[in-house]
Design brief:
231 residues, binds magnesium ion, 29% strand, Rossmann fold, 10 strands, binds adenosine-5'-triphosphate, globular, 4-stranded antiparallel β-sheet
């Protein structure tokens, strides 16, 4: 076998998620199949309400499908108990959410450290690794700033550093550039790409910004709960 052969990392098969709203049923995911290789950067695009956030929540073990399977390496997320799923997520997945949620009473560095503590980093090592990612996202000197003292873009970068601090195998990012101007948005995605290539982490990134597609290894287009084109 060639050593260059790409290694399958994440597989979602026939994923379905329906929400019952009285008379109507919202088909948030209506039978989605997706495969992501180790170290690959996949960008998910599609109109509002097409199921992008729902899909990445399934793949990151935040939520479970009603039907279908999520397998990461050889671990079957759909068969895990809540406890196992939480443990898996903490160890392996770094999230940057659509509406990033920094803790307002903690400084930038403390926000980052809190996430890394969940994977048992401690003391000097914790401090070193977190300071490293804080600097990598361009926030050297802002360690002690509180979220309210940072701009939207800077907060977004703290949220990214927080996701990267534990060196996750999978990085999941929902609309990283929503509040950012175009140049800062591109910088942010370049940063995600460079870091993931260094860590050999797989990335799943949701965006509305067509300018970011150039950074993807693969683009997934969603509409009404289904994948339209899988390039
Ligand atoms: N908890 C929920 N209860 C009911 N409906 C839901 C729930 N979560 C999501 N939905 C619905 O499922 C569909 C897909 O939602 P999702 O958040 O995945 O869309 P999206 O593609 O991420 O949209 P956006 O670009 O606006 O973030 C939408 O119609 C949404 O209203
Ligand atoms: Mg969304």
């Amino acid at each position: 076998m060639s050593s260059k052969k790409s290694e399958l990392h994440i597989r979602g098969s026939d994923l379905k998620k329906f929400y019952n709203l009285g008379e109507t049923v919202v088909k948030a995911l209506d039978g989605v199949n997706i495969e992501i290789n180790k170290g690959e950067m996949v960008i998910v695009v599609g109109p509002s309400g097409s199921g992008k956030s729902t899909l990445i929540n399934m793949l990151g073990g935040v939520d479970r499908p009603d039907e279908g399977e999520v397998v990461i390496n050889s671990e079957k997320l759909h068969e895990m108990s809540d406890r196992e799923l939480t443990k898996f997520r903490r160890a392996k997945v770094g999230f940057v959410f659509q509406f990033y949620s920094l803790i307002p009473t903690l400084t930038a560095l403390e926000n980052i450290e809190m996430a890394a503590e969940l994977v048992d980093l401690k003391g000097e090592e914790l401090h070193r690794q977190c300071t490293e990612v804080l600097e990598a996202v361009g926030l050297k000197g802002r360690e002690n700033s509180y979220p309210s003292q940072l701009s939207g873009g800077e907060r977004q970068r703290v949220a990214l550093a927080r996701a990267l601090a534990k060196h996750p195998e999978i990085i999941i990012v929902d609309e990283p550039t929503g509040q950012l101007d175009q140049a800062t948005g591109i910088e942010m995605v370049e940063l995600i790409r460079d870091t993931s290539k260094k860590l050999n982490s797989s990335v799943i990134l949701v965006t509305h910004d067509q300018n970011l597609l150039q950074f993807a290894d693969k683009v997934v287009r969603m509409d009404s709960g289904s994948i339209m084109v899988d390039e």
